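Collaboration report, partner site 2.

Our partner group contributed sequences for two proteins of shared interest, and the home lab folded both. The records are reproduced in the order in which they were received, starting with the first partner submission.
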Amino acid sequence: MQKKNYLFSIVMPIYNVEEYLKEAIDSIISQTIGFEDNVQLILINDGSPDNSEEICLEYADEYPENVVYIKKENEGVSVARNRGMDLATGEYINFLDPDDTLDLDVLEKVKLFFDEYKNEVDLIAIPIVFFEGKTGNHMLNYKFSHTRVIDVEIEPHLIQMSGASTFFKREDGLGELRLNPGQKFGEDASLMTDIVMKKKRYGVIHDANYNYRFRITGTSALQSSKESYDNYFPIFEQFFMPKLRHYAEVYGEVPKYVQHVIMYDLQWRIRLKEVPEVIKDKMNEYYDAVLAVLHFIDKDVIMKQNFLNWYQKHALCTMKDTNKWFVFGDSYYKTKKRMLIKGKQRVDDLVVIDKQGSIKDKLDGRSAEIDLFEVTDGKLLILGRVGSLLPQDTMKVYIEDSKGGMYQSERFSFPNEDRYMTGSVIYKFYGFKFELPITDIQETSTLKVYLEVENVIHQVSLKFSPSTRLSNKITNSYIVYNNSCMIGYNHKKNRFDIGKYSLSNMLKKERKYRAEMGRKKVKNFKKISRMRIAVRILKMFKKTPINLFMDRIDKADDSAEVLMTYFEQNKNTDKQKNYFVLDKDSADYSRLKDKFKVISYKSNIHKLLFLLADNLISTHCDRFIYQPYTGTDNYFKDLKEYKFVFLQHGITKDDMSHWLKKYDKNFSLFITSSKLEYDSIINGNYGYTSNEIKLTGLPRFDRLIDTSKNDEKIVLVMPTWRQNIVEEFSHSINGRPYSDKFKHSDYFIRWNNFFNDENLHTYLKEQGYKMIFVPHPSIRQQLDDFQLDKVEVAPYEESYSSLMKKGSILVTDFSSVYFDFAYMKKPVFYYHFDQGNWDNENGYFSYGEMGFGEITGSHNTLVTDIINTLEQGANMEEKYLDRVTSFYEYTDQNNSKRAYEEIMGLSNDNN
């Protein structure tokens, strides 16, 4: 017999969650408020096909006074929750999801809040904190800065969407309200909105967490919603429009709070770059549905959305005014000329106004972003973009020198910066490019940038991106060309200042730089100043070119090491100084120090040579890896003059232009190995030309040619990593710390099962083979998670090329190491049980049509294919041999020679 009057009724719909269910229930039973005296737990088995029922019955038997167990056919979460609410006898109701948990003192804190504010609120919300596949706070947690009552008429933007993280009164709050049984998305927000709007107030507790399991498998409701048809059209019909119409009818207009609820939910459905597959054939109807919602949403509500960019917000406002979908080329608003008084002068200005006459943008005070600023091939290259609502059809960018000379820019495209809305491009930045003869620049003293629109022209201020050498933080930064000319940017006067470079002028400039750092209280500014002056002086007298080579922080044995070896063999003829950068604790450090000059990563000599280098030759291109100045780069960036030679860790097969684009990385040389790879970069959105992209082959391939017979019989396993299951890189340890979530991932489970397949290991043992696992560097910290009793793990310091040459076959997933293995014409197997890293956009390479081996997502098929290939002598099939021959431009041992010649051919201009 159950007690009738509980404080809390926890309603938990259950479907296919046996893995997590006990953890969820235990978080209720262990509440500090006292489970047996205060909590009714209602478990609704919604036709779950797994063993969840056994778990439910176990708890129902142990706590018969508290646990209500109902088994029903599958009808969806809303029906299950409604059934639970009908059975609830508690004063307050909560919908805990069966794969989540509550902090153990949540119910106690909720009771205390209701005790204090019972007459003011019907609903209390607590923060959502993610765990497992993702950690951190939910994006709406900003309202939980402190425990309080929120008045939604005063702060309508502080919305509550989740039902699971709320507690509401059963009688006064819920009453006769129920969830819409046919609604699959937004059902929580709909009910919570109606409860909140009863009193237009609700409570928030800042230190009582709802723990949301963000599943690594990607199957939680929050993760899977984007791929569901019900997340699009039905939510308009079942939630957005009925809710808006209802409150418009009740109040005469839709309250701001309700507008914010709908607009928050809508923004996720329209900010997408790609059109979801499930609505591609109904886009016109979808546009009409969005426009119908916008009719009820005020512009100020649109503009306050935190997860739309500026252009998306203004596009939506324009759509509201015009009642049609916005695409790039449409005018955001109308333009209007006006007169400004600046000092004693009257100047024209151009403003952008909306339908109501409000000014949304203006030409006066406009800025431009500079993405590249360098001297190369005798020209000053300035690459930048303007972002504004001003019309682009009459837009022009000019530079004026101190002698009155005017230069008009070329247009330049920045496709990776385009702004999208549900698959449509709504904004393209106005990109501009100047290539000014350096001889002309040396004859002038200033350069000013102007923007013209509709025959109105204004000087613009400039902001410098991280890829440039000039700083936004320090106004006295400057670059030097050829020890004869210095160019800086005056942020106060919005102009480039150009002057003659000499020892005395340099010291004057550096004194100003030091004084500015002192005024801004830059830490260790005196030490920084001494370093800057020393570098400037050394550059004046430096005669011999300096090359810095680098693979990984803690490991060599890649293309940089191979190429440096070639440089060292030719140093007597090319007269260059070569240094290899490596962590002093690396096993490769002692191996290489007798072979050539090795300098310790982030040592003082590394920091000095980094600023003196003529060429940075690296297989890695992330700034946080190759730059030795952590936190102080802004004060040294104008000293860097090296040309960046990007060797790559492997062959680029996906579209990586979002990462490797010229106006961010600015490679002077980008080494490729296949004509297909070369063409994909030249013709893609990278921004490079044949001046930078060179088809030489990776230097490390030179060590892969092996004519000797391999008798070692090795199955080499080399999968890549997954970004969402490991921790972020830590500078304190120069690596990634251990991740608790890794062992729960599908990636771990799949590979661990493969490593422990009895049939495969029995065969390998009988035939004299052994399996060697080569973990990706980003998952080595997770090795203890794997059961590897029958697998040999390659030491981190083991030679990469040696492993490749010893392997009989390679098993991988999406790692580009298969390009190396196929280069030797040996069998490759692709284990594709998922899609790899989420940010890899499809490129030119098709595994089905161009891959060098069999592809499968099945464990059993993979094992069978491996055994069959080994039975046939571990030889690559003829069709894959043909693909190898057609893919690689070169299969000789001259890749280092070709790369060396390209580097030696780089211009001697100092940038």
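Second partner submission, folded after the first:
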Amino acid sequence: MIATLIALVLTALAAPAIISWLGRRGFYLLAAAPAAAMVGVIVEWPRAGGSPRLESIHWVPALHMDIDLRMDTLSAIMSILVLGVGALVLCYCAEYFDNDDSPSGPRIRRRVAGFGAQMVAFTGAMFGLVVSDNMIVLYIFWEATTVLSFLLVGFYAQRATSRRAATQALLVTTAGGLAMLAGIVILGERAGSYLLSDVIANPPTGTAVTVAVVLVLIGALSKSAIVPFHFWLPGAMAAPTPVSAYLHAAAMVKAGIFLVARLAPGFGDLMAWQISVVGLGMLTMVLGGWRSLREFDLKLILAFGTVSQLGFLMVLVGTGDANVALAGVAMLVAHALFKASLFMVVGVIDHSTGTRDVRKLARLGSTAPSLAVIAAVASASMAGLPITLGFVGKEAALTSLLDVDGFDGWQGPVSTAVVVFGSILTMAYTTRFLWGAFGRKVRREPSAAVARMHHPSVAFIAPAGILAALGVAAGFVAGPLGSLFEPYAETLPTNGHELEHLALWHGFTLPLLLTVIVIVGGVGTFVVLRRRRRRLGFHTPPLGNADRIYDAVLRGADTVSLALTRVTQRGSLPLTQGVIMVTTIVVPTVALLIGARNRLDLNGFDSFAQVVIGGIMIAAAIATTVLRNRLAAALVVGVTGYGCGMIFAFYGAPDLALTQFLVETLTLVIFVLVLRKLPAEAEARHSTGFKPLRALIGLAFGALLVVIGLYAAGARTTTPVADDLPKAAYELGNGANAVNVLLVDIRAWDTLGEVSVLLVAATGVASMVFRHRRFGAAPRVADAARFHGADPDAVDDMPTARTTWLRGSELRDPRHRSMVLEATTRLIFPTMVVASIYFFFAGHNAPGGGFAGGLTMGMALVLRYLAGGRYELGEAIPVDAGRILGLGLALSVGTALASVFAGAPALSSATIELTLPVLGDIKLVTALFFDLGVYLIVVGLVLDVLRSLGARLDIEETSTTAGRASAGADATGMGARP
């Protein structure tokens, strides 16, 4: 299982390169990974059907987040569906997307390459979800499918409908996922274990557990589009058809069904469970079938039909009876086969005719008979007609539901009646689908769309044909299949009845009579609605428009947020800061007054130098509040930062002092770059009088922080853990620099979170500056020719063909050049690069590390930019900053995962002893690779900031200056006319 996950992840990473190399045919190569994984699951099936196969990797044991995987019968069934259908859909993609030899081929190929990677990644996430035994890990895979679904549904990002559909699906399923996370935490804490197998084997009880189960069910119901969350699924039909055939037929929407089936043995007897799962499932089955009969788009007919079928499945797997659950598993497999096949058929129709509207399709059955046969076979299984697996599952469902005796004997008859009525609607919309897509419709000639269609290739319709054929073949081997499914059914109670076996023929029974009623009633419903649609008012939604309710909820949330921020966020910095400070004052003060307080141990200062530095910092902070010149204020603020670094140094913390000095210097550079776009002087204050309230809040805030610091410092009653850090750093992290070992080993999780925040910050800054395109390297000297004639700083003699130092400086206006700075840069830049590398390698045992080394390299880039301008920045590092950031994060995360795959907790380090020529014996700590990721992220951050706030703003300023000069020239010319 772990090997399968790794293979799928690697395939997803390689997918863009494969499709860029092979074009659309690369999808066949991508399909090999899930196909091979499916074969592996089938080979292991006997073991999965008996005792479950377990695999585990230590990840974060303290947070109950070990990667515990479990392959039992239910997981094996879902894995085969996820992997097998996924492989066929990838093959289908090879024919679905447009020919990449067209004029727009390169652009299409780039988009399709990303699509392929997302599809394979989704397959991996879905596989991880169904084999996860740890509930926290299951939730992580659950949310991964949500994010990937958002990307796949929004594939046509240029279309407003696609963006709305993707956002709607994301919001609905994420909201349900958050509720589910809360339920998982409560359930895990009450059960004393986060393993699903443990929770189901020994289910906890109590009101809190009932609440937790309901919260988990909210996530399951939202994922599987059960009322009231059903509306997102039809909207998601804006996605490409392969997405609908996979996510919305065999994979993502089955996640909620799977989770309910997994929890049913432990909690299926709860009243809240029966009401929410069975009750809402029946309502969904009827509502979805009714809505399906109203649509004219073939894809929407199937979409609402899917909603109906998901409700049916929820009833079966949620009833909590062994026989009903066995029928539910059979229907789960049947639905994946026939619905994925039918979605593929719709995709072929749309691709070949250019329409999915049943009013524009006539005589397609005679024009494309093979496609019609495939659709008819798959539709027969959807309608539950004999010899198909759908018929076997539906017969088993009707038989077992009649024997359910919950709710004083009412549950069985009521459930059976609702299922029969829902099945009549299913038969009706199945007939309408076939008639709408392939019927003659009283026409002697094909419709215009059908007449000009291009016939699909065999490879295009083969995946749909394979799935449809499997749906029929499975009906003939229902007995052997049932014996494979029964180990799951045996985990539920039989309620006094023997466990029935799946069979294609049970004789003339009451369920068979009900099937005849369903067939006759469904065809009759179709005929009546076709002829008297308007007269019956069938165009009116039965329970209102869910999309409008969704929009109303979003508008309500906007209204509430605007009303709230109108009071708390009025655009006034003093008000916002005052709210924060007052909150910070009140809450800790109350805690100090009502809580126990330890004795204060006051120590004013350790040396007179600290008093001097502290006084300077206080004076600088006060001066900042009265200075009107923005640059002067920024420089004075920097004094407080440098003073803090000096205090670190006096306390014997050279590593902290070095980092503080570097960060403060870089911050000042960023301040200066931003201040170029602002007036030199701040706006004059409207009121210069003394404000007692503000002064009181400021003094109270400062005094409270001092008091809290004193109490916190004196709160220790035992020896602080910091005393053991130097020894732990050497023994556990094999390093003498406790600060660096703490960052990259002992507390590496914190560091990973912090560098992720740095990456987000860099992306945010660039997104505000680059409004249209995010990525791209800084311009180089060779790019200056594109701007020549429009850039007044450009010179006639382009230095593109000469090898010179600081080539970019030759493109600057001589008035803006500093020969002293250029000469200094020539001397200092190589030294700073060497110092950066030294800090990086020496940081494990001496002051430095990846963060300090990256900041030093960043300062070297700042120097090159200040000396040579934006073109020199491109010459210094001609690489896209986004790639450096991504590589750094990938390296840090990869180091964390490497230890997991080695059988140790995440971010564990190891020491490798090597003997190298010249260098001799050396010890290489694997935390160095994590630190290298930190180094690259810091360098990428500085480069991105310089590119955004430096080079980009330079270009905008140059364009503005050129525009003004051009306008001035035009005005002068006009004024010279007689």
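Feedback sent to the partner group on the second submission included the following. Confidence is low (pLDDT under 50) at residues 787-797, 799-803, 974-978. The first strand starts at residue 53 and ends at 60.
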